[in-house]
Amino acid sequence: MIKVLMFNKLYHPSMGGVERLVYDLCEEIKGKVELKVLAANTKFKTEIEQRDKYQVTRAASLGCVMSSVHLGIGIPWWWTRLESDIIHFHFPSPVAELYCLALSPKEKPIVVTYHSDIIGHKLAMFFYRPFLINFIKRATRIVTTSPEMIENSPFLSKVKDKCRVIPYGIQMDKFKLTAEVKARSEAIKGKFKSPIILFVGRLVKYKGVDYLIEAMRDINATLLIIGEGPEEKRLKELIGEIGIEEGRIFFIGKVEDKELLAYYYASHVFVLPSISNNEAFGIVQLEAQACGRPVVSTALPTGVPFVNLNGETGIVVPPKSSEKLAEAINRLLEDGTLRLRLGEQAKKRVESQFTREIMAQKTLELYKELMSLKKEV
């Protein structure tokens, strides 16, 4: 059985977007490989947990800087002691990338899942860039979640030969319309005026929620915003500034997964109005599509339009355009036949291309390919 060391800066129950993806992948491949997970802890203490069919080591950490760079000082010690045939690394994690360069034997295959380019931090990138280039050279294979990431990343476009596309996958069973979910969704429909537009995500600038709010001036519907973040106060102030009447936009805050599922089913259209390359994929699009909802998203040079195909699973509009957002949303709200058709096609596409099982199977095939190459050498 192939021995795999899976590394990410944090691991479940820490649950950001990447952490959820890594957790889903581990849960799907456990037992099919001999799996060990290494991550930074959230405290200055190393903790080892034996889960069903795999082990998780959370190495002692000094915390994090720049909001997401985790200083896992215990990682090097465990890096050299956890036996593996393949190291599967989830990028970005700048400190750990340096550990990987310094400590990984040159003959050991390294798979790097490249979740996104590092956006911003210009001064830090000036010093970090040479290490990143060397890290990419060191990688045996680089997994990206969309062809667009390979073409448009300034780093990956130069190493296309070692890149492989394995899209994110979701667990379709979690998105079934059960009697309980249906009852919850009906309660939501009864609480808010129909039709319902839904946004789910962190309230940060790159999500472009301000453009969606501005678009609501020309849309006769209710907008529900699920999520929390530093932009919440400014967005609420914007509603008053542009004169949108009370009772048309609601900030729901953070909700549990079961409740979130009910909101997806209660909605008519899902919108992801992101405005920068920080949005590398938009997994919430898959979640909405799994519930049969069409998506309005933006034409970013990332995996966002790869997930939402214009005219097939939803409508794609230019970023930073409240007018185009309003136009697309109104088109779907006014044409029920189109809305249902795109939603049904979206669900079928998720089932055929974006499930957790497909993601895991393609990953296992990549591991086998690397072990075959190793034997040939």
UniProtKB/TrEMBL annotation:
User: What GO MF terms are annotated?
Assistant: glycosyltransferase activity
Annotated Glycosyltransferase subfamily 4-like N-terminal domain ranges read 15-173
Q: Which domain of life is it from?
A: Bacteria
Q: Which UniProt keywords apply?
A: Glycosyltransferase, Transferase
On whether NAD is a keyword of this UniProt record, the answer is no
What SUPFAM superfamilies does this protein map onto?
UDP-Glycosyltransferase/glycogen phosphorylase
UniProt domain Glycosyl transferase family: residue ranges: 193-349
Q: Which Gene3D superfamilies match?
A: Glycogen Phosphorylase B
Q: Does the keyword Transferase apply?
A: yes
Per its UniProt record, what PANTHER family does this chain match? SULFOQUINOVOSYL TRANSFERASE SQD2
Name by which UniProt lists this protein: Mannosyltransferase
Q: Which organism is it from?
A: Candidatus Aquitaenariimonas noxiae
Question: In the record, what lineage is assigned to the organism producing the protein?
Answer: Bacteria, Pseudomonadati, Candidatus Omnitrophota, Candidatus Aquitaenariimonas
